[in-house]
């Protein structure tokens, strides 16, 4: 959900210092804030399994669950429907998306379209300091997994490592439109992973695939980096489908 109301064209009005803003503008600002709050809370509840994927929920129940009034809730729901995470059924309720094989395949295909050109730029432009820091972080994660296994304590760090790598890759393009689109893809990935069981061997394979990619980037080998990314995505999709 956009953090800025860039589509607005309010006229610039000169006001005396300390003069109160028009009531309409204050009300609009509050509505925007509540809409964003509703958006974030719904995502948190969905990804935190408080709202089960595939659930059908009435608008009144959502008002109680999310804790915001109806108007900003509806704004948030419209955005989430546009992003494909739910379907609004008028006078009935809201159906939340449940990922299936086709959804997972389409998401990884779209992810590949976005990240393949980005990883080539990343391989050629990322600083050695950044690459060394990311490689070291991966090695620390691997050492922790080999020592203690995959536990709830290490899970947030593993998620953060994965997100940091892929957002850095996308960020290399310096394109805000691609970045905004990729945040939507990241939400899709979180939805897909709700039905996925992570184990020590699976997470170790993921981190080691990342390292192959990072080492290719450190060598400034864009072809090898792109190939490593494609292999990683292919393996990740198979892991998501429970193939290995």
What's the end-to-end separation, in Å?
35 Å
CATH topology annotation of the largest domain = Four Helix Bundle (Hemerythrin (Met), subunit A)
Q: Please tally the β strands and state the result.
A: 3
**What is the strand arrangement across the widest sheet?**
1-3-2
Structural class: mainly alpha
Tally of separate domains: 2
**What share of residues is helical?**
55-70%
Number of helices: 9
Percentage beta strand: under 5%
Q: Quick one: CATH class of the largest domain? A: Mainly Alpha
Could you name the key traits of this structure?
244 residues, mainly alpha, Arc Repressor Mutant, subunit A, Four Helix Bundle (Hemerythrin (Met), subunit A), three-stranded antiparallel β-sheet, 9 helices, disordered N terminus
Q: Can you characterise this structure?
A:
By secondary structure, the protein is mainly alpha-helical. The chain has 2 domains: 23-96, Winged helix-like DNA-binding domain superfamily/Winged helix DNA-binding domain (Arc Repressor Mutant, subunit A, Orthogonal Bundle), CATH 1.10.10; 101-240, Four Helix Bundle (Hemerythrin (Met), subunit A) (Up-down Bundle), CATH 1.20.120.530. The chain is 67% helix and 4% strand. It has a 3-stranded antiparallel β-sheet with strand order 1-3-2. A hairpin with a 3-residue loop joins β2 (86-89) and β3 (93-96). α5 (128-148) packs antiparallel against α6.
């Amino acid at each position: 959900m956009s953090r800025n109301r860039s589509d607005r064209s309010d006229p610039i009005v000169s006001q005396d210092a300390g003069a109160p803003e028009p009531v309409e503008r204050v009300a609009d600002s509050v509505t925007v804030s509540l809409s964003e709050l509703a958006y974030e809370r719904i995502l948190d509840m969905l990804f935190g399994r408080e709202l089960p994927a595939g659930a059908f929920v009435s608008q009144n129940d959502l008002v109680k669950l999310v804790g915001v009034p109806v108007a900003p809730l509806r704004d948030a729901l419209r955005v989430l429907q546009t992003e494909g995470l739910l379907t609004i059924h008028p006078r009935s309720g809201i159906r939340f998306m449940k990922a299936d094989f086709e959804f997972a395949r389409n998401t990884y295909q779209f992810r590949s379209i976005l990240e393949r050109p980005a990883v080539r730029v990343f391989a050629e432009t990322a600083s050695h300091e950044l690459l060394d820091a990311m490689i070291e972080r991966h090695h620390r994660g691997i050492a922790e997994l080999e020592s203690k296994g995959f536990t709830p304590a290490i899970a947030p760090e593993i998620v953060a490592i994965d997100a940091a790598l892929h957002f850095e890759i996308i960020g290399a393009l310096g394109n805000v439109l691609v970045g905004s689109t990729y945040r939507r893809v990241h939400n899709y990935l979180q939805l897909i992973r709700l039905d996925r069981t992570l184990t020590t061997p699976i997470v170790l394979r993921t981190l080691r695939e990342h390292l192959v990619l990072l080492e290719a980037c450190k060598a400034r080998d864009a072809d090898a980096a792109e190939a490593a990314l494609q292999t990683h995505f292919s393996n990740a999709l198979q892991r998501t489908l429970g193939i290995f």
